[in-house]
Amino acid sequence: MLKTLTTLLLAAFVFILIGAGVVYSGLIDVAADRPHSPSLHTLLETVRERSIATRASGIETPDLGDPQLIRSGAGNYDAMCVGCHLAPGMDGTELSQNLYPSPPNLTNPNRTHDPASDFWVIKHGIRSSGMPAWGKSMSDPYIWGLVALLEQLPSLTALEYQTLIATSEGHQHGGGESMPHSGDHPHAGEHAGHAGEQQADVHQLAEPQNTPHVHHHADGSEHSHGDVHD
Questions:
Q1: Contact (CB, 8 A) for 174 and 138
Q2: Domains of the chain (ranges plus CATH)?
């Protein structure tokens, strides 16, 4: 018995040493453009799905058909989510195409609908996936708004989606956030992170530039004609 136990301990120690050697050698490729092997991918998917299902099992779902809840979710979704998860009529983005694992296209009508799981994922995020834990800055009612929008999203046309955005209050979840509706800036539907830059550029172009015109003479002297906008 003692010999067997000693053999098992030595085998475990050797296994740990080999594992540590592999880790510190850098042999494991963590590049996002090199996908996991099929077996590892299946394992990780199973771990993720079972982890979420277990933690979401006790969550009670409110009425997700409330129009105001859906509009609230639409404004936040357009500001926070379209860059990865897309919107009706929207092509893939640099983020949606280049992240690994690839973010799910939430406009897909074949997507499995599980509101409790969606709520848990939005609130807590998923490690090493690019999915943030929005619950750190967003209270539960606004998260449920996003879930309510997700229930409607696959059946919406691009026009219906944009109408929802136009009637929403934009990016707001209790912290004084403000984001223009997607129809208010020149590239509606693109990743919302660029919206502030685009709007700032428009304002800069619209503002008068009060720069005096300086006239240079052949003898090297110069004089100003004053404000060009006078």
A1: yes
A2: 66-180 (1.10.760.10)
